[in-house]
């Protein structure tokens, strides 16, 4: 038996749904397409995603004390899971991981013809909660049914690159005054000695070092949950409690996104929007931001995001000087 044949057999054995997934509207569901692909040329992609699923499962098991602190999910835990009834999809959105474009796609998919081109949907409209249905809006039996029979997916990104992207977007752009007032003033008050009255009032010049100090401050974590833009993926999407069928990556965004659309049976008319953002946060940029962070603070910050690194198979960055 070849290695590929072994992986395919292993993959089919681990299919939790068997071959009898109930077909919807006379067609195959995304779960059937994923776990029992008709076209075997998809098998390499299927194996890749099986390996990503296994990585999540293994990390949850190895870190069970840390990852399963709360065993019962509340409706509030499910507010990031967007539901598309027509195509039987559940998408957990993670800010700073192409979530605007994925919300646009979900509006097209679940809009029943109201939208056709995702890029014609303004970004601010994609973030209006009333435009998408989330799992916390259903009854408990309805939630359980959808978690069991819909294809669940999320997209992840190298944790520190995502963090720098969130910092750049929320604290270095002049238009983000709500973040400056809500978080910037608090960070400056706590982390900056001899802050000017203007800085305390505006909160619009937070340094990255101050942002990191705020994140690792035990007082911050006791006070309230992190904002969703810098919250860990495992706290936003609960992958140790919810079995995700697909883990897409920002690094292979287009390929993984179009695979989801193919499984949903819509790739004939819908593609993931492609455009190169010149302002995108890169690995080189992230390296620069971390140069001024002490080894002690880097170590403490890594501990905060450690599960995301392990769960989604991101190695410890070369630029880190861990204690």
UniProtKB/TrEMBL annotation:
It is found in: Golgi apparatus membrane. Keywords: Carbohydrate metabolism, Glycoprotein, Golgi apparatus, Membrane, Signal-anchor, Transferase, Transmembrane, Transmembrane helix. InterPro entries: Carb_sulfotrans_8-10, Sulfotransferase. Its EC number is 2.8.2.-. The keyword Manganese does not apply. Its main location: Golgi. It is a single-pass type II membrane protein. Belongs to the sulfotransferase 2 family. This is Carbohydrate sulfotransferase. It comes from Rattus norvegicus. The lineage of its organism: Eukaryota, Metazoa, Chordata, Craniata, Vertebrata. The gene is Chst11.
């Amino acid at each position: 038996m070849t290695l590929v044949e072994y992986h395919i057999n292993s993959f089919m054995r681990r299919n939790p749904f068997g071959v009898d997934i109930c077909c919807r509207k006379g067609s195959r569901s995304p779960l059937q397409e994923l776990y029992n692909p008709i076209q075997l040329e998809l098998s390499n992609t299927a194996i890749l995603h099986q390996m990503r699923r296994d990585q999540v499962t293994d990390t949850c098991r190895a870190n069970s004390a840390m990852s399963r602190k709360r065993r019962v999910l509340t409706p509030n835990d499910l507010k990031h899971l967007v539901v598309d009834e027509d195509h039987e999809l559940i998408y957990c959105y993670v800010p700073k991981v192409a979530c605007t474009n994925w919300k646009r796609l979900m509006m097209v998919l679940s809009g029943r013809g109201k939208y056709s081109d995702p890029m014609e949907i303004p970004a601010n409209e994609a973030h209006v909660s009333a435009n998408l249905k989330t799992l916390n809006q259903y009854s408990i039996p309805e939630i359980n049914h959808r978690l069991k029979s819909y294809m669940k997916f999320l997209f992840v990104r190298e944790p520190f690159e995502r963090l720098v992207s969130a910092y750049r977007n929320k604290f270095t752009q002049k238009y983000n005054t709500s973040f400056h007032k809500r978080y910037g003033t608090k960070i400056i008050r706590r982390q900056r000695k001899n802050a000017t009255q203007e800085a305390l009032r505006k909160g619009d010049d937070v340094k990255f070092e101050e942002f990191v100090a705020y994140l690792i401050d035990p007082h911050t974590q006791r006070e309230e949950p992190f904002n969703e833009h810098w919250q860990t993926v495992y706290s936003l999407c609960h992958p140790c409690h919810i079995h995700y069928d697909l883990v897409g990556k920002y690094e292979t965004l287009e390929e993984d996104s179009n695979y989801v659309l193919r499984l949903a049976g819509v790739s004939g008319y819908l593609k993931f929007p492609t455009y190169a953002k010149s302002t995108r946060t890169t690995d080189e940029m992230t390296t620069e931001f971390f140069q001024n962070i002490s080894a002690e603070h880097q170590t403490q910050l890594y501990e905060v995001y450690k599960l995301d690194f392990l769960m989604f198979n991101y190695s410890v960055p070369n630029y880190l000087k861990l204690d």
